[in-house]
Structure formats: C-alpha cells, structure tokens
Sequence to fold (261 residues):
Amino acid sequence: MPASSIQHPASKVFCGPIFLVGMPRSGTKLLREMLNQHSRIAIAANESYCLPSFYRRFPRYGDIRDPANFARFYADFSRTAFFRRLSARAPFINREIWQTQVQAWDYSGVIAAFYRIYAQHYQKDIWGDKTPGYLRQMPLLKSLYPDAKFIHIIRDSRDYCLSIRRAWQKNIFRAAQRWHDDIRRARQDAATHLGDDYLEVRYEQLLDMPETVLRSITDYLHLPYQTAMLTPPASTENLGDARAVEGILKQNYGKWRTGLS
Fold:
C-alpha cells in the first residue's frame, strides 16, 4: 500500500482533567495560577482534599439520579471546606445547576459536572484540581478519570524542608523523610498506573526558565503555548518569602545554603 494512502488515527484531543500535585511548599500554587492563564484551563482555586473520602461514601446515597438522594449528597458535599471556600468565589454553583449538568451518574461523572460548571463559568473547557495531598491518591484518581493527566512539581528537598520549618515550625528531619517517601511512592505509582499521563517538572527550573517549562507542559497536554501563562495575575502565597509577591520570585531557591547551616 502506498505510504500516502495509509490512514493514521488523529491524535486525541485532550479535554481534561488535570491533576496538579506535589509536596506542600513546592510551587503548586504558582504553577496553578500560571496554567490558569491559558484560555482553555480552569484549575479550581481551592484545594479539595475530599474527593477520596466522598468516593468511599458515595454508595450510601443510593441511586443518585433520584432527586432526594442527590439532595442528600449535595447537603453533605456543600459542608466541606472545599465547597464553602470555592462557593465564595463561585456562587453560581448550586444544587439545581449541578444536577442538570451531570452527564454520567457514577461518582466520577457527578464530580466532573461540578468542576465543569466551574470551568464553564470562566469560558474554559478543561477542568483541573490542585491538591498537594493527591500525590498519594493518583492511582484512585486515574481509575476515576482514565483520560486524566498528572503534573507533579518537585522542589529541592533541602529548600522544601526549610520552607516547611519556616511556615509551620515542622521538624526538618521528619520533613526530609516524608519528602523522600512520598516522592518515591509517587514515582512508583506513576510507573505502575499512569504511564505517559504523568509529567514531572522542577520548581527551580520553573523559576529560572518559565517559558521552557510551560512549553513542556502545554506540549504534554497537546495544547498550544500561550504567553499569558508567564504572568500570573496576583500573589499566590500567603506564607514564606513569596508571600504577597506578584508574579515569579526568580531567586526563591537555594536558601538552604544559609537557612540550614
């Protein structure tokens, strides 16, 4: 058969979701805000944390298509810190709108509808979540959303430990052990469950070469790069040296050399 007549399948258009994960104090907020400047991406402004626990509880509600059962689910979900904080920014999400937007009545479909409403409010079509703790929940999230892509931002362990101590007075030896254990487990989970749907980026490189890193992310997501991503609109931090700083604090690394001496 002539090469010109061979039919190649079109590459699949990525429609989400995106899960942005990483250790605390590792640049997840900054990267979220940079990605949110893309015209198609809407990563929720607050961390959810509750998705695994509600996955375990979901069977209790019975047939969620029943309005009474959905109302019970909504009543519980709306009491989470995630919903309360996000609804302060997104009061347009209510029970009636949420229920009408559900396309599939399993757990993943119900939760996807919630995030989709949020994204559509900003005229975006790719929804995402930034919850650092989901670094340990990637296999579950991948089982719920087979098309999901994961971005794992990693900070130098020494700066991570210093930042943890400064922000929350944590023991740096325990912090170092947690960094080692969680990063190793995440990489094992990625190798076993995620395949090509997992990307690691380095916090230090994001500060030094933001365009290069962001281009690698948009290539990974099969999206066009957009220069607006280089200018996050507001301060992303309320703790540490980057507190109240707008944009990118380029020298916010290597502080362990003096801070841990």
Residues 1-10 have pLDDT under 50 and may be disordered. The two ends are 68 Å apart (CA to CA).
